[in-house]
Task: inverse folding
């Protein structure tokens, strides 16, 4: 049985590399992680350089992503690539997941300050639907495997809600 509102159809598509269910390393608790394609940061030592190219992703509609990720027992993480590279496409999904009670983490190579300075309405709206932002580019010289939920010491965890 569909969980979508009657008559609702969202055909906006996102470029998705992968969806991982039941992750415990991409935010607190049990999470479903959506890895979005496309990343302008191209960090040296990136663990997923395949994510840099937007063409490496598969098209999925917001409705398909909602159906694939909706599980009342797990929360959601947006990762990449760079989720904010697709902010316009992702924000409706974030709003629907949030309205369904999901707790949302988002990883970005941008800092919180950069996102605010960019003042892109789609990025601000996406950020407003998220509970936690892990920000900053991966910096190989600051790599630290002892950190929870981060790859390098410069990255910060912001509890937004």
Result:
């Amino acid at each position: 049985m569909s969980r979508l509102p009657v008559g609702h159809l969202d055909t906006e598509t996102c470029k998705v590399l992968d969806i991982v269910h039941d992750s415990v390393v991409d935010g607190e608790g049990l999470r479903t992680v959506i890895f979005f394609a496309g990343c302008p940061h191209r960090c040296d030592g990136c663990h997923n350089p395949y994510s840099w190219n937007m063409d490496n992703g598969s098209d999925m509609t917001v409705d398909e992503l909602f159906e694939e990720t909706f599980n009342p027992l797990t929360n959601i993480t947006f990762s990449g690539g760079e989720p904010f590279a697709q902010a316009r496409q992702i924000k409706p999904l974030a709003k629907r997941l949030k309205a369904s009670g999901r707790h949302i983490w988002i990883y970005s190579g941008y800092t919180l300050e950069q996102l605010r300075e960019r003042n892109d309405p789609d990025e601000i709206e996406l950020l407003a639907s998220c509970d936690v932002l892990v920000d900053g580019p991966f910096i190989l010289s600051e790599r630290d495997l002892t950190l929870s939920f981060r790859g390098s010491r410069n990255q910060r965890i912001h509890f937004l809600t």
